[in-house]
């Protein structure tokens, strides 16, 4: 049986860029660290990670999200976050810009932001 959980299954257009400014994600980093401490973010014994956090940028459909393969890390600095700048749910594609590729769960976060603008 092939395990493909925790890996990117969408078309990812990654633009390597600078880390997100820490002042923009201070609260998000604290919430992520707290969720990790509760076991809501982490990795299974087989190494597959689970759990990501994101936050919408203003009233747009752009958002900041944890990078792929970061759930096993206890504390994340800005270098482990990326900005999703565009996505297309129908085409299963996403564009992100930052030091890491966006999480494998990014299109799920994108769909929530797209269909629930009040979040």
How do the strands and helices of this protein lay out in sequence?
Blueprint lengths: L10 E6 L5 H16 L4 E2 L5 E2 L3 E3 L6 E4 L14 E8 L4 E6 L7 H10 L4
Parallel strand pairs: 1-7
Antiparallel strand pairs: 2-3, 4-5, 5-6, 6-7
What's the gist of this structure?
This protein has 119 residues and is of the alpha+beta class.
Biggest beta sheet attributes:
5 strands, mixed
- What fraction of residues sit in β-strands? 25-35%
Specify the CATH architecture: 3-Layer(aba) Sandwich
**CA-based shape:** globular
Low-pLDDT residue spans: none
Query: Taking Cα atoms only, what radius of gyration do you get, to the nearest Å?
Result: 14 Å
Judged by helices, strands and strand pairing, the structural class is: alpha+beta
Average predicted confidence as pLDDT = 92
So how many helices? Answer: 2
What topology, given as strand order, has the largest sheet?
Answer: 1-7-6-5-4
Write the CATH fold name: L-fuculose-1-phosphate Aldolase
The helix/strand order is: EHEEEEEEH
Molecular structure report:
With 119 residues, this protein is an alpha+beta fold. It has a single domain, classed as Class II aldolase/adducin N-terminal domain (L-fuculose-1-phosphate Aldolase, 3-Layer(aba) Sandwich). 22% of the residues lie in helices and 26% in strands. The strands form two sheets. A five-stranded mixed beta sheet has the order 1-7-6-5-4, covered by helices on one side. It has a two-stranded antiparallel ribbon with strand order 2-3. Strand 6 and strand 7 form a beta hairpin. It is globular.
């Amino acid at each position: 049986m092939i395990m493909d959980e925790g890996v990117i299954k969408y078309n990812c257009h990654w633009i390597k860029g600078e880390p997100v400014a820490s002042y923009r994600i201070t609260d998000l980093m604290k919430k992520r660290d707290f969720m990790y401490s509760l076991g809501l973010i982490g990795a299974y014994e087989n190494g597959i990670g689970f759990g990501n956090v994101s936050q919408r940028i203003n009233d747009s459909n752009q958002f900041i999200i944890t990078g792929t393969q970061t759930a096993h890390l206890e504390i994340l600095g800005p270098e482990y976050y990326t900005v999703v700048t565009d996505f297309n749910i129908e085409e299963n594609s996403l564009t992100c810009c930052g030091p890491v590729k966006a999480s494998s769960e990014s299109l799920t976060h994108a769909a929530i932001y797209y269909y629930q603008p009040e979040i």
